[in-house]
Amino acid sequence: MSQGSVTFRDVAVDFSQEEWEWLQPAQRDLYRHVMLENYDHLVSLGLTISKPDVVSLLEQRKEPWLQRGDGRRDLFSGLGNCRGTAVTGM
Length: 90
Fold this sequence. Notes:
Layout: E1 4-5, H1 8-11, H2 17-22, H3 25-44, H4 53-59, E2 86-87
Antiparallel strand pairs: 1-2
């Protein structure tokens, strides 16, 4: 069995604004729930990572993308080089 580090970016799903608009409210709620749960699971594994912008937006029940004028920030900022402990059996 191979081992490797897992980041939030590895388990995140990204929607464009257009794709998001096609989702029904129940689908948006499911997305929020799953993304926040994924983040919580990674933190519970002992990963020491900063909270990604997308998680903060979802916690505030805001739409998960950057508005115009926000520059080229990454919604998953702070995670690019962060690696946690090896996760096996997944």
